[in-house]
Amino acid sequence: MLKTTEENSVLEAAAPRATTDATSRSLLFISHANPEDNAAASWFATQLSLLGYDVWCEVKNAHAGESGLWLKVQKKIENDAAKFIFILSNASRDFEKKQGVYKEVQAASNTKRDNFIIPLRIEKLKGSVPIIISPDLHVDSENWAHGLKELQERLIKDGVPKARTPDYERIKSWWPAVSAREVLVKPDPCEIDSNVFPFQALPPYIHFLKVTSEGNRLSGLDQIKGVLSATLPFSVNGPHAISFARANDYLELTQGFDIADEHVLPTAEFLEEGHPALNIAADTARNTVTYLIAASLEGQLASKGLSNKALRYSRRKIWFPAHGLIGRNSYRYADAGKRPAPVWFGGTVTSFRKKYAWHFAVQPAVDLRTHFGVLLSPKIIVSKVYDSASGEKPVPLDDNRIGKKLSWWNDEWRKKLLAFMHWLSDGHHVVRIPIGYQEVLLSALPKTETSPMSYLEKDDDDVIREIMSWTDA
Length: 473
What we know:
The protein is about 30% helix and about 25% strand. It has 14 helices and 23 strands. The chain has helices at about 5-15, 40-50, 70-80, 100-110, 145-155, 170-175, 180-185, 220-225, 245-250, 265-275, 280-305, 400-405, 410-425, 460-470, and strands at about 25-30, 55, 80-90, 115-120, 185, 190-195, 195-200, 205-215, 215, 235, 240-245, 260-265, 305-310, 315-320, 330-335, 340-345, 345-350, 355-365, 375-385, 430-435, 440-445, 450, 455. A hairpin with a 2-residue loop joins strand 20 (about 430-435) and strand 21. Helix 3 runs parallel beside helix 4 (about 100-110) and helix 10 (about 265-275) packs across helix 11. It is elongated and about 95 Å long.
């Protein structure tokens, strides 16, 4: 809730008054990414105006293309602004894409005034914050009123004067630009790719193997794992090795031991009911099959020459191509009906004046409960630069700052993921994962979801021009 007029008066009376020339300035300059953060900027500008502050917020971009615009903005910041309020979001933090925002922040930073820039973070950030922005105010995207309260207390403490009478015409001018959603969103359904690649078929049968040595049956993981080849994944449950491979598949790789199929069940039945005779519940059966598929998939990824980085606190791995494994670090791929174009899986990036190698990577997770497929999370692996032609291998680093230098949109991640699966499947629609005499068939195409609405691809200028055509009418 906003404070009452009486409460505000008490706060203002108790607050120390600024003694610098800042008291001669009263303007609150709001900087934000247009059009992504128009709603937040309009809301804060309106609330601050209703509280009596003099607010400047260029939501409509009414002066776009005007000669000397940036000089006027710079003078506003340098000569009139008491505070520079920066709406901090994933859109506004990307100065490379938001050159206008960058110019405003740089102008504010150049004033060298203490506590002049006040960042309002309206969402969880997916990357680093520019060094000239100190995120000392946090505004939860679901509780702007709480952030407004903090901001108001800061303004009172710093002695920012009020205009007292709200400028209702200025408030009215901010809100039409929020209708940018109507420019970007269409009520037409569209298909959206996910990162779930469904199973087309699992191995039909699962085998419960009996392993003996000189007539003595082996039991438990420690005994059995020393006999069976790890190239054919298996799980151990008491005296049984459970696998999609049959006894003959292991006998071809093993000497001095007897291996026999003691039980063979349809995989679908095992997943549904477990194995009551062996006291294996259905949940345990799903976990066992999940492990067998995951281990087989890792074997397939390794056979394709991919490198991996093991996660610190689990057995899961992130898989990536070393430089030179996939052509010249790129693979030609095209969506249906489009011309093939190179998709890059590796390159170099400079961070803190040092050059590093980057690699596109995937982190697989087998899911038999919800999606019945493999979830492939796209990742980035960064290493020191190395010479693969001389046999050097990448050594993954843990420096997160380097990875933040690599900023892609969802469409770029999607292209890399689809191109990677196309390469993994040798250009087919199915990735075949052999396990002994059987195989897992994994779709190389992701599951799609139908969205009830779709979005037009328009840049900021197109959006502003269309909105302005409404408001000028």
